[in-house]
């Protein structure tokens, strides 16, 4: 009986893996107020904002590289990446919200960062060209993917062979994480890692930078 119960649990866990986020949690991003979200996402008290320079250092970009900031939001990392890769590099600000993409481009131009390209994505397609980037960065956005299997396939197509996928997201630990994280984020780090590996990525390690968020690195398997 115990073996049967364990087998059923494994089947249920496997079927849940890759289900994706409920569309309800993305409703607020359908037509967001850029200024309001800028104040919320780019403020002290948000861990990834406070650790933003350490995160950029860990990403380890090189001048001239092409990088995609998928789920770019208000573009905090988009602009930091654009400065790192320099005028010969390129940063794609990818988001499902046109208001975020437009706001990112306006702020990039105001900062004289002419190497930023905006892309309005969907929940199944990044709309990045095939083999167009060396690195894809997803910060606090992977848990918003409603169709992670399709999005991971799109990300994999966009990455050049040997390219890197970086995932920064919330630690979700029952009994430890805040209640809003447990309700908002559909799965924990280990579940997401298995999901990403199943999509053709190799796990390349974790960088310990933050308390409430984790930083995982993957490479595109050939």
Detailed description of the structure:
The chain has helices at 2-16, 34-41, 47-50, 52-59, 76-85, 98-110, 148-158, 179-184, 189-198; strands at residues 66-70, 90-95, 116-120, 133-139, 159-170, 201-207, 213-220. It has a 7-stranded mixed β-sheet, with helices on both faces. The protein has one domain: 3-Layer(aba) Sandwich (Rossmann fold). Helix content is 38%, strand content 23%. It has 9 helices and 7 strands; from the N terminus they run H-H-H-H-E-H-E-H-E-E-H-E-H-H-E-E. The chain has 222 residues and is α/β, with parallel strands linked by helices.
Number of separate helices: 9
What is the C-alpha radius of gyration, as a whole number of Å? 17 Å
Question: What's the level 1 CATH class?
Answer: Alpha Beta
* Chain oligomer state: single chain
Looking at this protein, list some descriptive labels.
222 residues; 7 strands; 9 helices; single chain
Quick synopsis:
With 222 residues, the protein is of the alpha/beta class. The chain has one domain (20-220): Rossmann fold, CATH 3.40.50. It has 9 helices and 7 strands.
Please write out the topology.
Blueprint: H1 2-16, H2 34-41, H3 47-50, H4 52-59, E1 66-70, H5 76-85, E2 90-95, H6 98-110, E3 116-120, E4 133-139, H7 148-158, E5 159-170, H8 179-184, H9 189-198, E6 201-207, E7 213-220
Parallel strand pairs: 1-2, 1-4, 2-3, 4-5
Antiparallel strand pairs: 5-7, 6-7
């Amino acid at each position: 009986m115990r073996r049967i119960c364990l087998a059923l649990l494994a089947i249920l866990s496997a079927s849940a893996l890759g289900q994706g986020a409920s569309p309800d949690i993305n409703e607020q991003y359908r037509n967001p107020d850029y200024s309001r979200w800028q104040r919320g996402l780019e403020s002290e008290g948000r861990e990834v904002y406070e650790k933003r320079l350490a995160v950029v250092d860990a990403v380890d970009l090189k001048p001239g590289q092409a990088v995609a900031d998928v789920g770019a939001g208000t573009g905090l990392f988009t602009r930091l990446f654009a400065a790192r890769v320099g005028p010969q590099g390129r940063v794609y600000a990818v988001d499902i919200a046109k208001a975020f993409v437009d706001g990112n481009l306006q702020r990039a131009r105001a900062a004289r960062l002419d190497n930023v390209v905006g892309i309005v994505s969907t929940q199944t397609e990044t709309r990045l060209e095939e083999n167009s980037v060396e690195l894809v960065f997803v910060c606090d956005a992977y848990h918003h993917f409603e169709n992670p299997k399709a999005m991971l396939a799109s990300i994999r197509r966009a990455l050049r062979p040997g390219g890197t996928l970086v995932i920064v997201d919330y630690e979700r630990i029952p009994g430890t994480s805040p209640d809003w994280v447990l309700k908002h984020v559909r799965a924990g780090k280990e579940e997401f890692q298995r999901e990403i590996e199943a999509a053709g990525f190799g796990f390349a390690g974790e960088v310990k930078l933050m308390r409430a968020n984790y930083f995982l690195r993957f490479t595109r398997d050939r």
